[in-house]
Amino acid sequence: MEKVEKIWLDGKLVDWDDANVHVLTHCLHYGLGVFEGIRCYKCEDGRSAVLKLKGHVDRLFASAKVGFMKIPFTNDEICDAIIKTLRVNKLEEGYIRPIAFIGDGEMGLFVKEPNIRVSIACWPWGAYLGDDGLSNGIRGKISSFARHHVNVGMTKAKISGNYVNSILAKREVVMAGYDEAILLDAEGYVSEASGENIFIVKDGLLKTTPPTSILKGLTRDAIIEISKDNNITVVEQRFTRDELYMADECFFTGTAAEVTPVREVDDRQIGTGKPGPVTKKVQSIYFDAIKGKVEKYKSWLTYI
């Protein structure tokens, strides 16, 4: 990870190396924190813009509500702090990680008056699953680890501790030689990847998992919007792993992964083994949109 100069911590900009927490930070022990992953892009006009800033910050606060956490700042204050952090670090493009978490003060599962701390970091970061993956597709594998039941991990909240499930799944498949893990839900249907939502294409129909056991991604929403605007029929419907194997196309979406084609799942070639026409079309429009090239989608961008 490439360091930048400053990190925003509890309302102040501090030096990167000084943005520290105590070893008895509650979140470190028990996992109750909420976070977001956001990207900033340099647009075609030379300006930089944060993609879907308000949507991400709103989801941060929604996750905090699920976790019984009251963030000691307003949504607007966090949005402003993100812009401020990017500006002070002179970062034209990069990844942004806001996180709210229970700090030190009390230990034990129940903390009567939790000390909620908030940090915003940013750094340069390229393609999460690699530039080759964006162009040619990646190899996925169904993990032996299932996604949480909806009453186990609160799947719609981006809670830090939930991601142990994703870490185990990701490590399992990468150690077996694959690029990314795909998890099934508690009933055996395809849920999502370790950090991405999943889409498949069959006979021109674009299908994605409904927002039941998944984290409802903002990039997922963007691809649904792009598809509908370009006369691509898209449905939110459960599907099985064998339906995934028989798909003509498959791709992942996420802030980090952007739109990444999947060429193979469980050693089974998907379609032709190359990114298909629907994948390439929505990927191309998405990349134009995040660079400010599509007037219709400029509302997604907050210029800094």
Give a verbal description of the structure.
The chain is α+β, with helices and mostly antiparallel strands and 304 residues long. The chain has eight helices and 17 strands. The strands form two sheets. Strands 8, 9, 10, 11, 12, 13, 14, 15 and 16 form a nine-stranded mixed beta sheet that branches. Strands 1, 2, 3, 4, 5, 6, 7 and 17 form an eight-stranded antiparallel beta sheet that branches. A hairpin with a 2-residue loop joins strand 15 and strand 16. The chain is globular, with a radius of gyration of 19 Å. The model has no long low-confidence stretch (mean pLDDT 97).
Concise overview:
By secondary structure, the chain is an alpha+beta fold. The chain has eight helices and 17 strands. Strand 15 and strand 16 form a beta hairpin.
Would you identify the regions where 5 or more consecutive residues have pLDDT less than 50? none
The class by helix and strand makeup works out as alpha+beta
Could you tell me the mean pLDDT? Answer: 97
Shape: globular
Give the distance, in angstroms, between the N- and C-terminal Cα atoms. 23 Å
Layout of SSEs?
Elements: E1 6-9, E2 12-15, H1 26-30, E3 33-35, E4 38-42, E5 48-51, H2 53-66, H3 75-88, E6 94-102, E7 116-123, H4 131-136, E8 138-142, H5 163-175, E9 180-184, E10 190-193, E11 197-202, E12 205-208, H6 218-229, E13 234-236, H7 241-245, E14 249-254, E15 258-265, E16 268-269, H8 277-290, E17 301-303
Parallel strand pairs: 8-9, 8-15, 12-13
Antiparallel strand pairs: 1-2, 1-7, 3-6, 4-5, 4-6, 5-17, 6-7, 9-10, 11-12, 11-14, 14-15, 15-16
